[in-house]
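Hi F.,

I've been meaning to write this up properly since the lab meeting, where we talked about keeping a consistent format for the predictions we share between groups. The idea is simple: the sequence comes first, exactly as it goes in, then the structure tokens exactly as they come out, then a line or two of notes. No screenshots and no reformatting. I'm using this chain as the first example so we have something concrete to point to.
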Amino acid sequence: MNYILYLHGFHSSPNSQKAVIFKQAINQKFDNLEVIAPQLSVFPSDAVKQIDDIMTSNLDKVVGIVGSSLGGYLATYLHNKFNKPIVVINPAVKPFELLHDYLGKQVQPITGEEYVLTESHMVELKSLYQVNIARPEHVWLLQQEKDEVLDYQQALDRYKDCKVTFELGGSHGFDQFERFPIKIVEFLFSHRGTN
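Output, unedited:
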């Protein structure tokens, strides 16, 4: 069995609309492929340990990684660390800046977990940032212009040397995402053998 790791965004879950669309498409089309989609911890260091552990224990079986929003940021970190192909969907480029607005008491809307987001968590997030993307030819950016949460231009700048699909309109949730799961799998597999 081969795996694709799917990483959801901030205050989201493995049952988000995109994650469900992706998992259903893979289950219907591929017998030898499974999506690993963990519920990521709200704390950056714990989330990183989760995904590092998944990658380390399944390294030969993970074909690639898909990340949405904050998950795209984490996917980029994993790409640089483990040299796996990734697809990032409306990714957060510098979440350690964006999430400053969320410092203080929070409730994870899906799990109901109450927690406090602190400046030290922003430091943890920032420590994952690397200026260079290890192998841009193994990275595909899916970006829609009308992302109401993130500045699309940041992503276009960050991933400019990668494969880029940029669409006018859309939303942060990435409208009509059902067009892409099979193409994503094909991209990940086509770059898997050159790791």
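Notes:
The first strand starts at residue 2 and ends at 7.
Residues 72 and 173 are 13 Å apart (CA to CA).

If this format works for you, I'll send the rest the same way.

G.
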